[in-house]
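Page 37, continued from 36.
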């Protein structure tokens, strides 16, 4: 995971791979650093097959599902989410580890 900075809209979140670059992003989550710290308990987006995490905005959507030891992420440029142009899976342990590292970083960044 990486944080990118926009001139006017604050920090944005990207799922990033050393091998493949940006895998998915949250382009409509402006000032994501503040959003995460305002509600740490529900900051990690993850759902189930029966109740997936879904976020839909203009020209963008993402679905995140946990199944057993994996988290599946699907992103689309179609807000109706009929077609996903990006999809991948991550080990649950790695997904949670990256989120917890980000949360710890943000806590320290705002405390310092």
């Amino acid at each position: 995971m990486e944080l990118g900075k926009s001139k006017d809209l604050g920090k944005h979140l990207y799922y990033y791979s050393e091998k493949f670059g940006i895998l998915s992003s949250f382009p409509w989550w402006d000032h994501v650093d503040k959003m995460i710290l305002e509600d740490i308990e529900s900051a990690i987006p993850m759902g189930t097959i029966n109740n997936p995490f879904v976020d839909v905005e203009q020209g963008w959507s993402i679905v995140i599902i946990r199944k057993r030891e994996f988290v599946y992420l699907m992103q689309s440029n179609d807000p109706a989410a009929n077609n996903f142009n990006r999809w991948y899976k991550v080990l649950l342990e790695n997904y949670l580890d990256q989120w917890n590292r980000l949360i710890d970083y943000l806590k320290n960044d705002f405390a310092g």
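The longest helix spans residues 92-111. Flag for discussion at group meeting. The CA atoms of residues 60 and 77 lie 4 Å apart.
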